[in-house]
Amino acid sequence: MSDDKVVKVALIGNPNTGKTSLFNQLTGLKQKVGNYPGITVEKKQGLCKLNNTIKAEVTDLPGTYSINPTSLDETLVLDTLLNEKNDSYPDVVVVVVEIENIKRNLLLFTQIKDLKIPTILVINMIDQMKRKGIDIDVKKLEESLNTKIVLASARKKIGIDELKSVILDYKKLDAIPISNITDRIDKEYFTKLKNAFPEFPLYKSWLLITQNNEFDFLNNQQKELVLKFREDLGCIKRYQHKETILRYQIINNVLKDSFKVDKSKASDLRGILDRILTHKIFGYVIFALILLFIFQGIFDWATYPMDLIDGAFASLSSWIKTVLPPGTFTNLIAEGIIPGIGGVVIFIPQIAILFTFISILEETGYMSRVVFLMDKIMRKFGMSGKSVIPLISGTACAIPAIMASRNIGNWKERLVTILVIPFTTCSARLPVYAILIALIIPDKQVLGILNLQGLTMMALYLLGFTAALLSAVLLNSTLKVKGKSLFVIEMPNYKIPSIKNIFYEVVEKTKAFIFGAGKIILAISIVLWFLASNGPSKFKNAEEFVTSKQENKELTESALQKKVASYKLEHSYIGYMGKSIEPAIKPMGYDWKIGIALISSFAAREVFVGALATIYNVDSDSENVGTIKQRMAAEINPDTGKKRFDFPTGVSLLLFYAFAMQCVGTLAIVKRETNSWKWPIFQLVGMGLLAYISAIIAFNIFS
Question: Is the pLDDT of residue 600 over 80?
Answer without folding.
Answer: no
